[in-house]
Amino acid sequence: MSRLQNKVIIVTGSVTGIGKAIAKRCVAEGAKVIIHGLEQDLGEQTVVELGAENATLVIKDLADEAAPQLLVDAAVKAFGKLDAVVNNAAQVGTGNIQTTDGAWFRRMLEINCVVPYLIIRAALPHLSATHGSIINIGSVNAYSGEPNLMPYSVSKGALMTLTRNLGDTLMRENGVRVNQINPGWVLTENEAKRKREHGLREDWYADLPKVYAPAGRILWPDEIAACAAWLLADECGPISGQVFDLEQHPFIGRNPPKDASTIPSK
Fold first, then answer.
1. How far is it between the farthest Cα atoms of the chain?
2. Are the C-beta atoms of 36 and 22 separated by less than 8 Å?
3. Is the domain defined by 8-187+220-262 classed in CATH 3.20.20.140?
4. Which of 3, 31, 80, 123 would disulfide-bridge 26, Cβ 3.0–4.6 Å?
5. Burial 78-106 (b: 16+ CB within 10 A, else e)
6. pTM to 2 decimals?
7. Distances (CA, A) of 78 to 58, 147, 167
């Protein structure tokens, strides 16, 4: 039997990238999933890939106050229960103290920290019943962040504190585990597109400097999904309130490149 057999899992932001890879891995491990995103065509394509018997699609902007409960209700209606939530969807964008106004900062905090909290809150009665699991997808930028990723980095730092706080509280009071994955630099569709828009060649990721990629390549979404599958599975045991940094070098304390302006986005 697969280790996620019959588990019902919400994965936000799962029509592309890391979220889609996690949803695919969950189904491969025996789970049923709620696919969520903003692009109807990509969502429908994802459901076809996973099989309609394994996946239900919800298209909804997470800024909508009704979104958290809508996701939870969709899972229970489609599959009868809810075992886990993966808060993967995020607002991504640049900004520093000169370019970030209050509206942009608040948007980052709302989508990247407040919304995951509200989804957890809406899901908690069902997760308590199944002694479920929550994964928040953060970023290694949570510890400080690149110069032009200030509001994004702060929002992921806030998410990390939320994970540690609820990871303790919900485990003791509800039997629900809460953990976080902080990916490093991952080759997603959106990351590839952003780099092409910045003027890099089509295969820019083929020969990256060792300072960024000691292994000669950056991470793949499937490698993030492998960690997520373990955290969602019962074999993870009582582990809760932990943050897992998935990067190929020690992110904190590492000697930066001489030209810090060349540091890539994550």
1. 55
2. no
3. no
4. 31
5. ebeebbbbbbbbbbeeebeeeebeeeebe
6. 0.92
7. 11, 43, 27
Q: Which of 134, 108, 126 is nearest to 11 (CA)?
A: 134
Amino acid at 31: A
3-class secondary-structure state, position 56: strand
Encoded amino acid at 110, one letter: E
Active site residues: 152
* Residue listed under structure tokens 């997808």: 137
CB 16 within 8 A of CB 190: yes
Q: CB neighbours (10 Å) of residue 168?
A: 13
What amino acid occupies position 18?
I
Dihedrals phi, psi of 90, to nearest 5 degrees: -150, 155
Cα dist from 34 to 29, 38, 212, whole Å: 15, 13, 34
Ordered by start, the domain boundaries in the chain are: 8-187+220-262
Spell out the per-residue pLDDT of the chain, length 266, in tens. 589 999 999 999 999 999 999 999 999 999 999 999 999 999 999 999 999 999 999 999 999 999 999 999 999 999 999 999 999 999 999 999 999 999 999 999 999 999 999 999 999 999 999 999 999 999 999 999 988 999 999 999 999 999 999 999 999 999 999 999 999 989 887 776 776 666 767 777 777 888 888 888 889 999 999 999 999 999 999 999 999 999 998 877 666 555 544 444 44
What 3-state DSSP class applies to 213?
coil
In degrees and rounded to multiples of 5, residue 35 shows phi and psi of -90, 135
CA-atom Rg of the chain in angstroms? 18
**CA 56 → CA 23, 41, 74, 89, 188, distances in Å?**
11, 14, 8, 17, 23
**Residue pair 161/176 in contact by the 8 Å Cβ criterion:** no
Residue 51: is it exposed, middle or buried by C-beta count within 10 angstroms (0-12/13-18/19+)? exposed
